[in-house]
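Key idea: predict the complex, not the pieces.
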Amino acid sequence: MDKKYRLALALILVSLWMVSAAGFAAGKVYIDIDAPGFQQFPVAILDFQNQKAGTGASPNDPADSIRRYLDLTGIFRVLDKKSFLEGIEPGSPEVIRFSDWSAIGADFLLRGNLRDGGNGLSAESRLYDVTRGQVIFEKKYSAPDGSPQTLGLSIASDILLALTGDAGDFRTRIAFVIKKKSGSDIFTMNYDASDLKNMTNDHSIVAAPRWSPDGRYFAFTSYKNGRPMVFLRHLKTGKEKTIASFSGLNLCGSFSPDGRKILLTLSKDGNEEIYALDIETMHLNRLTNSFSIDVSPAWSPDGRKIAFVSNRSGSPQIFVMDADGSNVKRVTFEGNYNTSPSWSPRGGRIAYEGLINRKYQIFSADEEGNNLIQLTFDEADNEYPSWSPSGRQIVFHSRQNGKSRICIMNANGMNLRVLKESRDLLVMPAWSPRPGKQ
Amino acid sequence: MNRHLTVIGLLLIFVFSLTIFSGCAEKQAVVKDEAMQEQKVAAAQEGAPAPVAADDDAALRAKEAADREAALKEQAAKDEAARKAAARAAWAKKNAEALVDLNIQNIYFDYDKSGIRPDAREILKANAEIFTKNSAAKIIVEGHCDERGTAEYNMALGERRAQEAKQYLVNLGIDASRIETISYGKERPLDNRSIDEAWAQNRRAQFLLK
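Result:
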């Protein structure tokens, strides 16, 4: 009696779980984009129909910015408008011939209406699964600022969320250093390279710009006082304080995942060692102990480990140690110059730059150093990798023929995009966390 | 080397301009004195043909006051000139000392290394002699790298080079408390070209007296 009852309950629970799991999979995440065989989502974005004017394209149509934002993620193949078989037929917006869309290779289709009213822009849009002939979502949007980019960003974020289960890296910023003859300064820009802003304006030497994972602080090294010191800025108030000005080298490393500590490279005790500084108490804890250079520490996203560069084996190589400095293991063994470790926010992989055939290229490996992949191959020098918060993309510096670029690529090295190009050196990009995390 | 020439040039210009400046001040003081004397003469001439008894006292008092003021001014001008001369002499002495045998040379390093090379040892010995002669000056050792590799690693490598050079000087008897190190990593190359020859020039330690 008792046994039977328990068995029945277990069966019910299991079947309930299976139903909900299947429902989740069908409703939210369509394809595992991190699977090795992943192909980009082919998506068609129709120009929005303007409710007010009735005919013609509106200058406020968000379709172009949706296309641009989706393209930037590297996981969408945005189909060319010219390939569309179906024209926009005013008056019959509900009729969609899915076969026409699958014929041109679109798996997903976005249609929308725009209201270009007196108080800002508003739109409604529908995302369709072309192969199943179903609506994936239908949603209303408004941009009180009247900007089609604002609308486009919201719609693109929802498309990404619906298809991957992750809001992605929209609304993040990238910090980097512009090095001119007059000196260098740190700048920040949006993920799509818009809205360039000065973070420093000292025309000095700057290095190692770092965001805290909670988005509250920004740290960097600057020679603005005549020698290298580490500065910590509170981003909301703009208040800045010097957190390391010991004799010799003071170099900024990365923040702990909880944002309470920051790793530093200091030479105050005789040679370059790695320390963890508690930002609140200013308590300093030395982590490495060798007669060689120990530099460029990067904390793992779970806080348990720290990757760093050391030349203790004769040439600069990547090492991993426990967060208390114990259990040091060498990770890189190929080549004689491996530096700039950056830990994927999703854990598991470390990106770094290595010298191969007299060029610096970006690689990634797991934290044991296995499953090594080379991500960049061309004739350029590619350096300073930094992961996006979603862990899907990597921003890096690329230099070739006197031109310098900030580029992004997918974590597997595909879909390279140039965000910014200059004759001045653009170096040391650092991807911000997602906003609103403070 | 270029840097040292620039420093010497700047010092010379400074000393020279100081000389001109204080020279002018003296001339002005002399001119002033002549003007004062002329005034005194004029006052005396005015006073002589019209000896009016009632105005005598007042005129005398005015003359005395003017004389006293003139004397004070003269003294102040002389003091100022003397002070400037003394400052100039002190400057000249100090810099003459600093300029004694200021043939400080850079030392160079191998790629990705911070060890002192055999050819650098002789240079460091010669530099140490210069530093001993200029015992009052602080010594700044700058470590530099070539453009290859990561900015951060090169900042560490530059510091290592400066530290190694400092240690060598200390072993040669230079007081460690006189020596400061600073790394400029790969940020301040002497030669901007991307060729072996330029890289060899850029992997260096430079020495400055302060």
